[in-house]
Here is the input.
Amino acid sequence: MGWGDVASISPVVPYILSLFFRIINSTPQEAIFNLSVLMYIVGTVSLYLIFRFKFNHMISYVGSIIYATFTLLYSWVAIGGNDITGVSLTLLTIYLILLAHEKNNKYYYIAMPIAAFAFLSRYTAGVMIFAIIFYLLINKISKNEFKTFIKGSVLGVLCVSPFLYHFYRILSTPFPFLGQFSGTVNNTKVLDAGYLPDTMYYIKHIPNYITSYIPHTGATFENVVNPMGNIPSVISYVFIILCIIGIFLIFYNSYKYVIKSNRRLLTGNNQINIIIALILTIICLISINSVSYIITTILTLSVLYIIKHILEDYDIWYLNYDLLMLSLLLVYIIFQSILSTKNDRYFITVLPFIAYFITNALYYIYNFIDFKIEIKNIKISTIISIVIVLFLLGNSLCYNNNIPEENHFNNIQQACKWFDDNCEFDNTTVIYSDNWPAVSWYLNVYCRRGVPDVTMENTTWTFTKNILKSNDEHEPASFYIDTNNENKMDYVGLSKIKSINDVQIYQNTYEKEYNIRSRGLLEYKDYYNMLFKEHMNESDYYD
Here is the structure.
């Protein structure tokens, strides 16, 4: 499984890529791009099929195009990664869950294995299980359906058991990914290059993720990778307004059903339920940044469950379906917002459900317009749909033309090419980098994650103090490749050996001077202890 063996990397994408290498004999670049495009199509089609449970063909098609042309999603199709695979398999799972409940329970036998693969494609995809359980609860599924769901879940575990066994054989635990969730579950802070405790980070940048333009001046490839620095377009704000309207219309539609009914809404029990829902909502808002995302998610879904319970007797069309979409939107926003480490691409998991509520608003707008206006047997909504699709496709083509040719990753590639030609290394050489995925990709060896905390005054020695000492995982570092820091610092124990544009390559000073690997050398331990003598306690000494 290549570097899918590493606990921090979900193994399904590396495994699929290995099949591309073995069967098709494609280059690494072709493999990752082909997989990204394939999963991009799978996700878009799956979302279209999800929309078809409520909307007609035209509106479903427009909604899926809106999703497919979101700037953040569209950008990452050409970059690679496992985010698109994770969200696409999540959408396919949701479609099959709906199909299993509405049409035939046996679809759970397909849905749950795909859910398991979605989880092992991108661990954050596992958050959808909260919304799935919520959907089954509000539908009050039968015992037979529940049994089929459990059987499907067991089948899902069996399907991914080879991966779990491989984890156990290599890492001595079948569930190495559980540690990645501990920080979020306990709401503990984590030191990371993407450490951003601001819970409103994604909310503030939603306009950039939906439809935005790359600035004409000062733009780099970073604007493609992280659109938060782009210029939001007017259509982005229009979509945000439509999304809010789409959410509002769920409750407004429910209100109309209540008004038309002879049943009394504010009964004694319902008044109590409304008070409980309000209290839980306030608790969620107050505690969102101080408790586990699991607690916040359960409280949020409890509020939605109470809403469903209050409206139970009014036979509101599509209410359960709408609540499922709303639960998915809220669950993923809560999870990503509470997570201490943030990266623009993580928000890809939220985009399908933003697209749903935009589409929901268009659904009601189309119905209103078509009822009021018709021109020679042509629906106005059809004309509007054609205009929207053509505009979004044209906008995407314009975005492509504005992608900067200057690419930071070209610098990394050139540095790695020089490194490959001039430095002695193999699979056992310990290499660190602050852009470890790119360096691993270009060198075709495992590069470790090394991100100095540039906000600390003593980072020039605290960072190297850790990487130049052996531990349970590896021997002392031989090289460090700095790609992101604007100020290339002089690190204690590291020597600069090459600069290529904004990439700096460092080597372990001891190994450079003595032309010998430091592994297991008593002299190196003495050297290390003397080097960091002023910055160590007794427990820090290299024994």
